Automatic annotation (TrEMBL):
<dbReference type="GO" id="GO:0055085">
    <property type="term" value="P:transmembrane transport"/>
</dbReference>
<dbReference type="Pfam" id="PF00528">
    <property type="entry name" value="BPD_transp_1"/>
</dbReference>
<keyword id="KW-1003">Cell membrane</keyword>
<feature type="transmembrane region" description="Helical">
    <location>
        <begin position="17"/>
        <end position="39"/>
    </location>
</feature>
<dbReference type="GO" id="GO:0005886">
    <property type="term" value="C:plasma membrane"/>
</dbReference>
<protein>
    <submittedName>
        <fullName>Sugar ABC transporter permease</fullName>
    </submittedName>
</protein>
<dbReference type="InterPro" id="IPR050809">
    <property type="entry name" value="UgpAE/MalFG_permease"/>
</dbReference>
<keyword id="KW-0472">Membrane</keyword>
<keyword id="KW-0812">Transmembrane</keyword>
<keyword id="KW-1133">Transmembrane helix</keyword>
<feature type="transmembrane region" description="Helical">
    <location>
        <begin position="275"/>
        <end position="296"/>
    </location>
</feature>
<feature type="domain" description="ABC transmembrane type-1">
    <location>
        <begin position="77"/>
        <end position="293"/>
    </location>
</feature>
<dbReference type="InterPro" id="IPR000515">
    <property type="entry name" value="MetI-like"/>
</dbReference>
<keyword id="KW-0813">Transport</keyword>
<dbReference type="InterPro" id="IPR035906">
    <property type="entry name" value="MetI-like_sf"/>
</dbReference>
<feature type="transmembrane region" description="Helical">
    <location>
        <begin position="81"/>
        <end position="104"/>
    </location>
</feature>
<feature type="transmembrane region" description="Helical">
    <location>
        <begin position="166"/>
        <end position="191"/>
    </location>
</feature>
Length: 302
């Protein structure tokens, strides 16, 4: 009788253990796939690790000193920031403009016109970056690409686009082509969900279309704009697919960004110490963006 009562009174702790295991899984995931790789990269950046020559020596901050004293490193940093700034600003401008045009078409004509325009705009999202890079690289080839076929049909000479000074610009055009639909969809969804009362009130007060957009629509869109710009900025900063597939960082190093430089240093030069130091330098900008966002969010929180 007493043993039966004890068995009934004993609490079942299996649910607690299961909950603890489930809560631990995200921490394990972060530790294995984020924390440890970052630790390993930082540790390697302090060593002269050249796998091809069997060299593995502690050098402290020498790798950083070597990189930061090289003018090419600073050119690569500037090129990366330029690539990011142009792609983000143009993608955002085009995405916002087309989102506003879609809403205007739907309001002025019919919803189906806005829907048709939307389908045309988001067509580039069908292609993954690797496939889009191959497609556009082939389009710009000197002898077989359709771009040069058009030039020849117009009586103009073919041009070696991807081995010229225009290569870096063409990769940016491809990035903008591929990412503008993403910005467009985010802003279009935000525009279509805005409350209409402030907009109607501004129109009743005599505000024109520009004033309504500037003083009513844009402030209401601000949180969504910040999110869209953050996602686009971080993704563009770490861009690799288009650059590697279309130019491999060339001609020379004219389209080499920090990610490409890190890849080349690690897997072509096999100097993993320098590559790790370059990877640590590459992480500074995303960390700065995250810290800035946290500071801005704290200031906005009452």
């Amino acid at each position: 009788m007493s043993s039966r009562a004890a068995s009934i009174a004993r609490p079942d702790r299996s649910g607690r253990y299961l909950l603890g295991a489930l809560l631990a899984l995200p921490f394990i995931y972060v530790a294995v796939f984020y924390a440890y790789p970052i630790y390993k990269v930082v540790a390697l950046s302090l060593r002269d690790y050249q796998i091809a020559y069997g060299i593995d020596d502690w050098v402290g901050l020498d790798n950083y000193a070597t990189l930061l004293s090289d003018a090419e490193t600073w050119l690569t940093i500037a090129r990366t920031l330029l690539y990011t700034a142009i792609c983000v600003s143009v993608s955002f401008g085009l995405g916002l403009g087309m989102a506003l045009l879609t809403v205007a078409l739907a309001d002025a004509f019919a919803e189906r016109y806005g829907r048709i325009f939307r389908h045309i705009v988001i067509a580039p999202m069908i292609f993954v970056p690797a496939a889009a890079g191959v497609m556009w690289a082939f389009a710009y080839t000197e002898h077989y690409g359709w771009v040069n076929h058009i030039l020849l049909a117009l009586g103009l000479p073919a041009y070696p686009w991807l081995v010229s000074d225009a290569a870096f610009f063409l990769v940016m055009v491809t990035d903008i082509w591929g990412w503008t639909p993403f910005i467009y969809l985010i802003l279009l969804a935000a525009l279509q969900s805005l409350p209409q009362e402030p907009i109607e009130a501004a129109r009743v007060d005599g505000a024109n279309a520009w004033q309504v957009f500037r003083y009513v629509t844009l402030p209401l869109l601000k949180p969504v704009i910040v999110i869209a710009l953050t996602i686009k900025t971080l993704d563009t900063y770490r861009a690799f697919d288009y650059l590697w597939i279309m130019t491999k960082g060339g001609p020379g190093t004219s389209s080499t960004t920090l990610n490409l430089a890190t890849y080349k240093t690690a897997f072509q030069s096999l100097t993993f110490g320098n590559a790790s130091a370059l990877a640590v330098i590459t992480m500074i900008f995303p960390l700065a963006v995250m810290i800035l966002l946290l500071v801005l969010r704290r200031r906005q929180t009452p």
